[in-house]
């Protein structure tokens, strides 16, 4: 279990570690509440596929938020 609440603050969906990392990367590294990928896609007006592609990009780039 994560040190953070593992539910999306917007819709209540269970969060993956990648979703927590993405929220930190895009919104605030110090965040303690997070949104799921679906809510983030609505917030930024992009597809979930685009966000999943960003996760892979950050992981390949060595970002430690995506171990």
Protein architecture, described:
The protein has 67 residues and is an all-alpha fold. Helix content is 46%, strand content 0%. It is built from 3 helices and no strands. The protein has helices at residues 17-26, 37-44, 48-60. α2 (37-44) packs across α3. It starts with 16 loop residues before the first helix and ends in a 7-residue tail after the last helix.
- The whole-angstrom Rg is 11 Å
Mean pLDDT: 93
Question: Largest sheet, if any?
Answer: none
- Taken from the alpha-carbon principal axes, the silhouette is globular
- Label the structural class: mainly alpha
Low-confidence stretches: none
Secondary-structure element string: HHH
Please provide the count of β strands.
0
Our count of helices gives: 3
Separation of the first and last Cα atoms = 15 Å
The portion of residues assigned to helices is 40-55%
Tell me the strand percentage band.
under 5%
């Amino acid at each position: 279990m994560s040190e953070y609440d593992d539910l999306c603050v917007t819709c209540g969906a269970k969060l993956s570690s990648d979703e927590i990392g993405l929220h930190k990367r895009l919104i605030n590294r110090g965040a303690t509440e997070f949104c799921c990928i679906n809510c983030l896609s609505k917030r930024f007006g992009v597809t979930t596929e685009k966000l999943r592609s960003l996760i892979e990009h950050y992981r390949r780039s060595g970002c430690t938020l995506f171990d």
